[in-house]
């Protein structure tokens, strides 16, 4: 009776809206049920109408996804990828790495006997290497491009790429981007980058007679555009997009691995000692590590693999969408399914790794597991045709810097600080880095 009373009190338009809403929800639920009855979908948690399982991703999707995978154990199958060749970013530019590593060491040495903000120094190194390779100029230390607020632009861009936007999950409801303010932020950031790249391209066009080996990415792309050697003609927008892609993908990733490598080594003095003994044994009294020393640094390479396993810069690979209906292991995966690969979860899976939460570089000594995309338990660069095109370039920038840091200094936490006091909180975005910078005392090994 009470409900009937309520009905009587409702105005006609309200009743109409409520009826339409209920009809839409009911239709949606019935369609879902019908679809599910026909398809053999992989097991998973129940979906809510409209938003599906979105609410279960949370602030730290890599952790939520691992918890869900544990719960629905049986679909933790390893799917084989077919491996295709990818165009790669060349390892060249040794002179840039050498000069930037030397600058990193000088900057750190200046801080002794005080403490140094090592995270900041490593961040400058990663940015400067990429800026010089891509644009031919660095911007740190009052460099030219910093005047344009380039670093701030990059930070904003990365926040936009990594940030959660409801509109991404409802492509048919594009207007959501306008409601959330995402569209205007994207437009603003896009305009700033566009203006900046226009200036950079004009400068490059006006500078003539650069030696072939000193050419940066913009020079190379402009040459390709001019001589028409690419299969598909390169437009100015293509050139700008390639440069932006490299910055978005290349600076934070290199930084995160070096930052974590130094953090884990400082917190694990035995591993630090082993890594330093190895580098100093190979390089000897020579102050500068050379790229030709790197193939002999097996323990240091194992440290880097262990960092890729525990702290992959992209904990969840870039989302993929299935183009057509497929069946995997008897399960239907409908077209347009959004696929997330939880690399972080795979690196800590107790079925794949012994003591998965412990930092133990030794696990890679004498093991054939590598991160090139063939061993699916360790794929920090992804795998298959859209994996990172800069595996060799990124690894070279990490290895030479880490070797030199280990060779040039003895490392300690600031007085009064213990390993357990180090704040290792991480923030999830397009890449995942520590939120509190690492402060250390770096005592020069050479006078
Ligand atoms: C430690 C270093 C790095 C790691 C761990 C890393 C990891 C990744 C990952 C996981 C992806 C996406 C792959 C996928 O979703 O399957 C990616 C894509 C990409 N990376 Fe890297 N990356 C690193 C360094 C770099 C550097 C230094 C550059 C540039 C010089 C770079 C350029 C790119 C580009 C352009 C893409 C997009 C490729 C595409 O459009 O499909 N990366 N990287």
From TrEMBL:
One Pfam family in the UniProt entry: p450
Cofactors, names only: heme
Family of the protein in this entry: Belongs to the cytochrome P450 family.
Residues binding heme, per UniProt: 388
Name of the protein in its database record: CYTOCHROME P450 FAMILY 71 PROTEIN
InterPro entries per record: Cyt_P450, Cyt_P450_CS, Cyt_P450_E_grp-I, Cyt_P450_sf
Protein keywords: Heme, Iron, Membrane, Metal-binding, Monooxygenase, Oxidoreductase, Transmembrane, Transmembrane helix
GO terms, molecular function: heme binding; iron ion binding; monooxygenase activity; oxidoreductase activity, acting on paired donors, with incorporation or reduction of molecular oxygen
Transmembrane portions of the chain: 12-30
Superkingdom per UniProt: Eukaryota
SUPFAM superfamilies (alphabetical): Cytochrome P450
């Amino acid at each position: 009776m009470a409900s009937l009373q309520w009905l009587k009190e409702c105005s006609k338009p309200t009743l109409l809206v409520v009826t339409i809403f209920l009809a839409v929800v009911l239709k949606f639920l019935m369609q879902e049920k019908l679809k599910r009855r026909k398809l053999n979908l992989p097991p998973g948690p129940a979906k809510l109408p409209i938003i599906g399982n979105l609410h279960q991703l949370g602030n730290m999707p890599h952790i939520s996804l691992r918890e869900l995978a544990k719960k629905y154990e049986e679909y933790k199958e390893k799917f084989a990828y077919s491996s295709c060749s990818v165009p790669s970013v060349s390892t060249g530019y040794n002179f840039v790495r050498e000069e930037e590593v030397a600058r990193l060491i000088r900057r750190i040495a200046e801080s002794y006997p005080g403490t140094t903000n090592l995270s900041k120094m490593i961040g400058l190194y990663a940015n400067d290497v990429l800026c010089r390779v891509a644009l031919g100029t660095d911007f740190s230390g009052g460099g030219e491009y910093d005047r344009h607020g380039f670093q701030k632009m990059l930070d904003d861009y990365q926040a936009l790429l990594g940030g959660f936007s409801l509109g991404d999950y409802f492509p048919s409801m594009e207007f959501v981007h306008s409601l959330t303010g995402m569209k205007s932020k994207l437009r603003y950031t896009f305009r700033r980058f566009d203006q900046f790249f226009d200036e950079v391209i004009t400068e490059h066009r006006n500078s003539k007679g650069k030696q072939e080996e000193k050419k940066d990415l913009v020079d190379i792309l402009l040459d390709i555009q001019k001589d028409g050697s690419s299969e598909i003609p390169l437009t100015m927008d293509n050139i700008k997009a390639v440069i932006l892609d490299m910055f978005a993908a290349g600076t934070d990733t290199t930084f995160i691995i070096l930052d974590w490598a130094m953090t884990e080594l400082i917190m694990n003095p035995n591993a630090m000692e082993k890594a330093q003994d190895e580098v100093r044994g190979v390089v000897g009294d020579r102050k500068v590590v050379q790229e030709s020393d790197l193939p002999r640094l097996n323990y240091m390479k194992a440290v880097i693999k262990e960092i890729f396993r525990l702290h992959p810069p992209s904990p969840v690979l870039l989302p993929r969408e299935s183009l057509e209906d497929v069946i995997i292991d008897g399960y239907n995966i409908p077209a347009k399914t959004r696929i997330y690969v939880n690399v972080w979860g795979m690196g800590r899976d107790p079925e794949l790794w012994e003591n998965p939460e412990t930092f133990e570089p030794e696990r890679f000594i004498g093991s054939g597991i590598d991160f090139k995309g063939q061993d699916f338990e360790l794929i920090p660069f992804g795998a298959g045709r859209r994996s990172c095109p800069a595996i060799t370039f990124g690894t070279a920038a990490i290895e030479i810097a880490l070797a030199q840091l280990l060779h040039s200094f003895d490392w300690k936490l600031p007085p009064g600080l213990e390993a357990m006091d180090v704040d290792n909180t991480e923030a999830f975005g397009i890449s995942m880095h520590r939120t509190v910078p690492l402060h250390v005392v770096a005592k020069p090994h050479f006078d």
